């Protein structure tokens, strides 16, 4: 949809090439259109361009206005434009990817957070002095792009004073008629959602641990629970749990996908297993956005999950492991639409495939139903209080074991949409032998002999296939 008021005033390639430090030189503007709306906050879209550079490469340029500092904690997720509709016929691994530039025009006095270092393009000293934005561009590293429609993304922040005169005039003409009302409506970091269905609210007075008991092995802890009294904490409709150990390269994108969710009825609990690679220091950067976090040695993922469950309120629960992330920012709204359900699940996208591979139904066999993706699943806490926490005998397939216990008795509601992205860097992918061994033990416990033998042949075949693929890549 082309802006009607832009038809009489077009941007020129000259004015765009005058943008400080822009990483490409623009040869021609092919299209100029309205910027799509977003659920992310502290910025609004101005317009989008389809351009071609002098090497005849096609780029998509989004021009936005940043009026708040939340943009500094969105740099690993603000390029998502993933289509949430599940299409089983689409092969994502061969989908043609695009190249993108994101330009934030910002106020000259927008404060640059001391702890925001972005990537290798700049290192800001840690001090109490306030820093303000300068014209800056940086690439989003490739390993942050798997769920994106883009193969290359550059992100820029340019204060208004650095714009060329004709681009500044163009921007002011647009902003006078479009940005004032929008920025007023989106001026909060997280816009609250109204909850009309009281049945979807939970009693925050239900039993939960405020913090974990002190331990001599504890490296650090933090979060809002250490800063506020319980009476000042927000009502909780969703608790997201992340466990991590030595994953500094991927944990930040996970955190950003959670703390930027629309709405203010979300709590975020993060359990670190005593990382030594800088993960703890990165977590500390987001201390004010985390409900509670802790760093201390534990006995594996199941143990870490269970510690977090003790801390969770009586709300919806989601387990988003380090490196995985939400690819949509309306999760609270999604849950609000299904207050009568106890288990809600959908698709989780990965590199070229979906988890699960097809829509699951309650009449399926329990082994098929138990293939739910925990990243894209939400269960109310009463499910855990009824059927028990995760079995700490399992380090890879604890979620499969949990669903095998629960799903013979509980129904789920399946949403035919993508909810999260799963990166193949977790414990299950690091130790395939243990993963398949645990699955066989679980199947022997819950499945009749004939179905167990069938699953045994499938698992052996799958293991051999993955072994051959990994050896000849």
Q: Which residues form runs of ≥5 with pLDDT under 50?
A: 1-8, 119-128, 186-202
Strand content: 15-25%
Q: Which architecture of the largest domain does the CATH hierarchy give at level 2?
A: Alpha-Beta Complex
Estimate the helix proportion, in percent.
Answer: 25-40%
Tally of structural domains: 3
Q: Residue-averaged pLDDT, rounded?
A: 82
Mind telling me the C-alpha Rg? 24 Å
Name the CATH homologous superfamily of the largest domain: Spore Coat Polysaccharide Biosynthesis Protein SpsA, Chain A
**What fold name goes in the CATH topology slot of the largest domain?**
Spore Coat Polysaccharide Biosynthesis Protein SpsA, Chain A
CATH classification class of the largest domain: Alpha Beta
Please identify the structural class as seen in this structure.
alpha/beta
Biggest β-sheet description: 10 strands, mixed
Number of strands: 18
DSSP summary: helix tally:
12
What is the global morphology? globular
The succession of helices and strands, N to C, reads HEEEEEEEEHEEHEHEHEEHEEHEHHEHHH
How far apart lie the N and C ends? 44 Å
Describe this structure in words.
- By secondary structure, this protein is an alpha/beta fold.
- It has three domains: 4-185, no CATH class; 198-430, Spore Coat Polysaccharide Biosynthesis Protein SpsA, Chain A, CATH 3.90.550.10; 436-473.
- The chain is built from twelve helices and 18 strands.
- The chain has helices at residues 13-17, 165-185, 251-259, 279-285, 301-311, 331-336, 366-369, 381-387, 398-406, 427-430, 432-446, 449-472, and strands spanning 26-34, 43-53, 58-66, 98-106, 111-112, 131-132, 136-139, 150-159, 220-222, 238-244, 266-272, 292-295, 316-319, 325-326, 343-349, 354-355, 377-380, 413-421.
- Strands 9, 10, 11, 12, 13, 14, 15, 16, 17 and 18 form a ten-stranded mixed beta sheet that branches.
- A hairpin with a 4-residue loop joins β15 (343-349) and β16 (354-355).
- α11 packs antiparallel against α12.
- The longest helix has 24 residues, at 449-472.
- The chain is globular.
- Mean pLDDT is 82; it is low at 1-8, 119-128 and 186-202.
